[in-house]
Amino acid sequence: MVIGAGVLGASVAARLARAGMQVTLLDQDEPGHGTSRWSFAWVNSNDKGPRPYHELNHAGIRAWADLAPALDGAAWYRPAGNLELATSDSGRAELSARIERLASWGYPARLIDTAEAAELEPALLPPDKQATAAWFPGEAYLLTEPLIERLVAYLTSQGGTVLTGEQGRVTGLDAGPSDTPRIRTADGAVLEADEVVCCAGRWTPGLAALAGAAGTVPLVPWDTPGSPAPALVVRVGPVTPEGPVRLIHTPQIALRPHSGGLLHLEAPDMPVDLHTPEDELCRLAGQLLERARRTVRGLDEARVVAAQVCARPLPADEQSIVGRLPGAEWLYVAVTHSGVTLAAHLSRLIAADLAPGAPDAQLTADTQLTPDAQLTPDAQLTVGAPGAELATYRPDRFAGTAVRITGPATGR
Q1: What is the CATH number of the domain that holds 370?
Q2: C-alpha angle 132-134-139 in degrees, rounded to nearest 5
Q3: Do 26 and 165 sit in the same domain of this protein?
Q4: Tens-place pLDDT, residues 21-36
């Protein structure tokens, strides 16, 4: 059983199905209609430390590139690269230092002049003459809805089941009288499973509490006034053909193309939470559109199409939480702020963790991940040593410690 049908949960479910497991995917909404639907979906390891976490995310970038040819990547995978501008003295110094560090770690990143920035992205309006520009050619973004559609379609083609609405809303979790995990759902059903994997994002602590393991998944509170977990997501359009084709980050705005001829806009300084009034959200959305118009071409006729406050799962120490829960070892959790970047790689590690040696063929282009794909007899989940790669991120690292909850100010 996999709880949560966002990009991470759908990836885990597809990977486990590929490993030969009978998988049921549960969600209280339709697949991909939660946080993943509104994610900036920036695939990167741009400013993610320490070094092991950077490497985990860098592996995530490579995993999506590997998977795209096998899963109709033309519909959802956008390896467009990322341009970043810094304008203040401190911003330029930080960007230069980050580029130097990333380059020393073998991550594609370099400083460029504004003329090259304009060549890479003709839609970019002339920046401040003192601006420093950087180019990250290996970064990408994903269109999460068509991606999740394809992951779920693959799951069902392999005999998997998807339960949504009241059938997929989990109301109880326990080990059962014979230590067989049981899930109770809102429609009154009791489902038994060999393994339960929780990929429910910000809802994970509540589900852990249902399992008798309250406090084992410390996330930044997302529903309190002033919480850093919510972010304002704005989509605007129509965008003319001269609009941007790449990810762009400036001190004032982050933007990327979106499906349907739209742009997706965010900014780290938008003061929103789940209690922000609707009229204030509309005002801030208009402000983001004006910032975008000062940054790129193609928005003369654009208007705000959607504005949504998206509450992101932010682990208290800013690192992913992956593994069996202390006090409820039958429940395996995976929660991360880097869900889009990590999903393809993390799902592979989780499958290897739960089904070592099981047939999988790694869901790469060599095996063509299509509904009629067949497992090869000698295919194995050979992805290295998942236990070693995930050791730093196990939930038991929080046991007996007081966690200082802050959370990052910007998206990852």
Answers
A1: 3.50.50.60
A2: 155
A3: yes
A4: 999 999 999 999 999 9
